Amino acid sequence: MRIYGTLGPRCSDTETLRAMFDAGMTGIRLNLSHVTLHDAALQIEALQKAADMAGVKTDLLIDMQGPELRISAPRVPLHLMDGDSVILETSDHLETETSCIRLPAIVEQALVPGQEVLLDDGKILLEVIDDSRKIDGSTVAKVIRGGLLQGRKSIALPGAEIWPPTLTETDLINIRAARKYGVTGLMQPFVRDADDLRQVRAALHEANADDIRLLAKIENQAGTAHIDSLLPFADEFVIARGDLGNSMPLWELPAAQKRLAARIKDAGKDLMIVTQMLASMEHSAVPTRAEVSDIFNAVLDGADSVMVTGETAVGDYPVEVIRYLTNTAKEAEKFLKGLDL
What we know:
Elements lengths: L1 E5 L7 H9 L4 E5 L9 H14 L4 E5 L5 E2 L7 E3 L4 E5 L11 E2 L13 E4 L4 E7 L7 E8 L1 E3 L4 E3 L12 H9 L7 E4 L5 H13 L6 E6 L2 H5 L1 H4 L5 E5 H6 L6 H14 L3 E5 L14 H12 L4 E3 L2 H4 L4 H23 L1
Parallel strand pairs: 1-2, 1-17, 2-3, 3-13, 6-7, 13-14, 14-15, 15-16, 16-17
Antiparallel strand pairs: 4-12, 5-11, 6-10, 8-9, 8-12, 9-10
């Protein structure tokens, strides 16, 4: 069983990282949605030093920008209250007001009345109510579920047909630098079809990095629908439940996870399950009973690896998170061995 944390400000020092390795961590994810490998050079150096001190050979997974949609950074964090109206801007030529939310231009045609707009992994929900101003690049939305909105948070538009490029220019820069920084795996987000994976393979080949593992993240309806055609083109598949859960009613997510896991394991591919495995531990030293049950059941579903994200990147207890993740996964493996007896 492989155990992954996510590199971030709460676990960027050698001492904390070594303690995470001692607690069972086998590898770590670096989210490149906001930074480049060059920007993270000191963190990577601390990671490699900690791994040497702990006597382990670590995996470094880079999570690409890919076709994920994100808002631009607002001038100040926005406090969105239920029932408020907010302006969504898609034009680069507008003078952004403090209270506006700027979205990528590619989503403009999808912003029609009734369209839901999920922000920050679905924490915030808007609904478009007026597109009469679309001629000037702005649309009016109502806040259905409010919250504090920071910059560069994710966007999801359930049901909308939007097709951003597979790789950004920043992705290509990071791929070319991957071997220099000791990257062992590349996580491609929002995989939609086999061509997405072919493009990533081609970019790795051009960078003389064919030995870097390709992990396909299944986190939208297109990836779910095309799972059978995707299976030959990646080394490992990641059921990324954050945005996958944004693409369907949440009560349908467990069944989707079960179906995907079965298809992936039947094909003989490695499986990783991620997102909110120990979310309460961002601020609690002890997880909920539901969270440890979730980890246990992920292993029973066939997961070869499990990963946490914000729990170690920005949470208060990164070492304890890894300890609970590791020990729960080990208990699940013991349970499975008992069933084989």
